[in-house]
Amino acid sequence: xEIAIALGCSVGFTFGGLVFVAYKLGLLYQLFLxxxxxxxxxxxxxxxxxxxxxxxxxxxxxxxxxxxxxxILVACExxxxxxxxxxxxxxxxxxxxxxxxxxxxxxxxxxxAGPGLTNTVTAVKNAQMAESPLLLIxxxxxxxxxxxxxxxxxxxxxxxxxxxxxxxxVRSVREIVPTMRKALAIAQSGTPGPVFIEFxxxxxxxxxxxxxxFGVKNPPKGLMGKVVTWYxxxxxxxxxxxxxxxxxxxxxxxxxxxxxxDQVQKCIELVSRAKKPVxxxxxxxxxxxxxTDDIRVALESLGIPCFLGGMSRGMLGRNSPLHIRQxxxxxxxxxxxxxxxxxxxxxxxxxxxxxxxxxxxxxVNRDKTQLLKNSDMFWKPNVAIQGDAGSFLLxxxxxxxxxxxxxxxxxxxxxGEVTKEKANRGKADEKTDCHLNPLSxxxxxxxxxxxxxIIVADGGDFVGSAAYIMRPRGPLRWLDPGAFGTLGVGxxxxxxxxxCRPESEVQQGHPHWLQGRGQAG
Length: 521
Description:
The protein is α/β, with parallel strands linked by helices and 521 residues long. It has helices spanning 2-24, 27-33, 45-55, 70-78, 89-103, 115-118, 121-130, 156-160, 176-188, 207-214, 222-240, 261-273, 292-302, 328-334, 368-371, 389-399, 408-428, 438-448, 461-469, 490-500, and strands at residues 60-64, 82-85, 107-111, 134-140, 166-169, 194-200, 277-281, 306-308, 337-341, 360-365, 383-386, 454-457, 478-479, 506-509.
């Protein structure tokens, strides 16, 4: 009896092992589900990539052309997606980042394998910290040659996993469409960010070209030769099995966290009792799905003085009585309620130390880690909401319909701002012994700038100075690196901005104009 049971278990394990091996080799897929058809078809995987991008509203693909990814670029161009070639891969990613921020769609960059991808690392990290939805498409060595010393072959997945919300390596042509749809949805869901898909070269070229590379000119004789030949032939069939079956390329649902009704009601009660409230608006407030014009109306309805940071600069126009640019530290210490709408208590807010411990604090952020950053040390929120800042502001405004912040509070802050700006203007008028006065340059550009201009601020201290002096004329008319503070974003950002808004002037500022950043503080 025991021997029979042991034999049964052994047979079961053996059968299970064979089934697993057959699955891994793609034999089950080919046997029961799909066959390789159209052996001479000129179709290729790049066409599938392009079809998904078009279905998701992508208008531009930024690149530095390489052989690994050429089929994608050719297919995109045929479908009306504009291919924009740059001279460095980082510039391509910066341009895609700008498109993502200004258009509300996913920015797309495609680069070749190996050094093409390693050149993008800084730009991808910048997009991650700026919370920009971005798809990075990378070429790769052929599936059977990875790890065997092929040209430009490195472990690309390990490189990008810490930088991206989602990483995938396509292993067959049929995987392209579902992998692309999943990646594009993840890039926009929750806290937006970059995603990466690796395309081995044999998943992108037509069957008849790939099959030539799989041929063995002088296979080993005997059983080993037959096994090698069969394995290569099977791998090729599995690579293209089910490749051209009709698949849905439309966008998958995007998940955006929202505040609960109870959380919104609690915030309504806190704001209604406040005498000196302040709103700190961050870049997250500009993210889809809430239109920036609707957010502007909501802020004006609330009547609460606002400090605008990052992409939210320009949200209230050029000369709004609610937009306060100066003396933020003093205002926060005096406020009895602070609403952090997509703003993070990192170095930009002295890690939360500038917040008055007696103030009621409402924090809204899509990312839980950013929502509570440093709350265990220097500050503590009364209400912490993991949700979308833009839609929260609309619901808060609706719940406070008819309620207005006491007018003397924003008037007092505005009067303090006028005094501070007069002093700063005096510094701008100072003569310099050498080079230009950076504050004077910024004032002059702001005075001459057209109303439809987009400002691209590139640099360190220079960006800080520009943020206090230059006044974007409307929403989504300001671009800066973000929390990572990357130098060199200007060229790519300006390229992406001009393509998104061809009718607008794009004003790019960089400290090298002034022969040194030391003067720009």
